[in-house]
Every structure is written in C-alpha cells, then in structure tokens.
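Example 3.2
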Amino acid sequence: MSAPRLLLVLTFAASLVWPQAYSNKDLKLELREAGAGAYSGTITLEGQSYPVTARGTAVELKGEFVVGVNRFPFTARVDGMRMTLNSGGVDHVLNRKNGAAPVSVTGPGTVYRHALGVSLRLAPGWTGTDNPNGIILLPAGARFEAGRNDNPELYIAIVKEGHSPAEEAQLVQGLSESFTRGTGNVQRSGVREAMSFGPRQGAVYRWDIRDPQLRRNVAFDIFGASEGGRYFAFISVGTAELVRPREAEVRQMLASMTFEVPKAGPLSDATPLAQQWLQKLKGRMIRQMYAYSGMSSDKYHYINADGSYVYKSSSMVSVDVAGASGMSSGGNANRGRWKIRDVSGQVFLEVQYLSGETKMMRITQDERNWYLNGEKAFAVDPQ
C-alpha cells in the first residue's frame, strides 16, 4: 500500500501491535508507541537499561538514549523482522523478539486465551498471537510483519473497559477525518451498520479506500459490541478482496469473546508500611498535574483493585509572543499490573508493563504532600 492515505490506515493498525523488542547478543531495544509519531522505551547494554526516545514511523526512526548526563543519538530502520540501528557510525543488526508463538490449530473450536484475560474461539484454520493490546489473528496462509505497510491483511481482537457511545463516535469521526483529509481516495467513510454477534448487539463501521498506485481496494472495518461495561471489538484491515470475505468468521469469533480478570498474587509486600500505602491507593486513581510558562501536563495512574494498572497522560504546549502563536498537544497510554513494594524502608509502586518492562516509582511524603517519582500526587476516585 503505497498511497499516503493507505499508509495512514496501516499506521493506525500497526500502533496496536507495538511495543516491539529487537535484540542481538550485545544489546536489546524495546519501544512502545507514545502517539503523534513518538516512541519511548529502553535500550539494554551489558545488563544495564537506559531510557530511549525516538520519532518517526514504525519503519524508520531517529532518536537518542541517555546514559547519565550523556546523550547518544541513533537512527534505526526496520526491514521485516530485522532492525539496523546505527549509533556513533556503527551499525548494529537486531532481530525482532517475537511474542507468544501462534497457536497450532488442529480443528474447529480451538480456544485462544490471552494473558490479559480475554479469550475467543478461533475460526477453523486461524492462528492467534499475544500482543500487549490484544490478539493478532491471521487466517490460514496469511502472514504479517510489523513495520511493513504492504501486509495484505491483518485482524486484531481487543477488549476495552469503560466504553461509552461518545468515545465510539469520537473514534469514528477522527478516523474519517484522517482518512479523507487531503485525498480523494476514500470511497466510503465510517458508514455504520447495526449488526448482531450471537447474543450481543453492536455495529460495524466501514471505510473503503482506493489505492490508485497499486490499483486495489483497501478495507478498514471495526466490528464492536458492548456488554457489561466492556467493549469487544475486531479490527480488520487489508486488501478488500481478502478482508471482506472473512466477515462471517470475524463475526463468529467476536461472538465467542469472553473476559476473565487474570488471577494475581498479593498486591503489596507484607510490611506495615507497604500495607499502609496499599490501603491508601488500592482502587484509586493517582493524578499528577503540572503547569508552568505555557506548558501543562496531566498524568493518570489507575491503581485498579484487581491488580491491573492503566496509565494515561496528556500534555499541551502553547506559544503566544509578538508575531507568533501556536499550540501543540499529545498523549500517551500504557497498561500492566501493579504492586506496592517495601525495599529497606523505602516504598515503591512497582509496575510490570505488558511489554515485560518493570518500573519502580518511589513514593515519598512530607508534612503536607506525598509524591510519586518526585512529583506531587493525589489519590482520588477514578473518573
């Protein structure tokens, strides 16, 4: 898919299959999408991990990693399962680290269970692979390579908590505007059709896009139905001649989707100090706000009672000076599981991200306030 608008279609789908990890015997690079062409993560050298930021696409990136007070720029290019990372004039060839191996399907009705708690019954011949955001599904004979924009077809099953009709409408509107802005390739844009998925009532939204360079039609469909505060959804994207005939199988798999909260161990260490913070934070939302000189940010840490963790953030920078004014905004999100840790009398919020990365955020307090990672924080009821 070479037309710019079709690249945007697959960029949206590809954002659901990040984070990615690439490694060789000497180093490992882990990245997750941070929105608006930005990525963040870590690079591990000789057993030590350092923060990474980058910008670009899923195919080509420019960024830097920080070691102490030193910053080291790098470029990276992805070709299928391989990444070539250049830093300091030296090329490092890394291979993509796969997630869970695809399920071997021996007959109809194979149940695929994701680590997040969602499960579904695969259509005959289909395989599934765990991804931090959901399940990547492929029919028999189909292949998908992250970082490529010419994959013929891709299917993703996801579950969203706390779904609302307003969010659904905003998503569809945003996609429609993105696909149609500055191009005449879109033939159908976000058309809604009511649809049933077994006992669930929902809808499908369809986009039809014509690739004038490759002379083929591309389909982008979102199937979804809500149940008990959860939104079960399938995203189908690729060449229309391949994607659209799969609709019956997609609807069948969506109808079979269920969700069960994963079982987890204790949510805190057994010390009195850890237990004290567990009582304060369990089931709450930690909010951190910052505003100064035209910059503002909001951070939200959802410390859910079932042990799941959701992080969301938004930021805005505004400029208003003589002869020039402007504003930019961005956002980020991540998920995982949390635990309160007491390490030699120091308390930490430990988060195990779905990417496998673990982060320790120290909790401190003074006579008036308490702080998470050195930033003032408030524990409030979830919004």
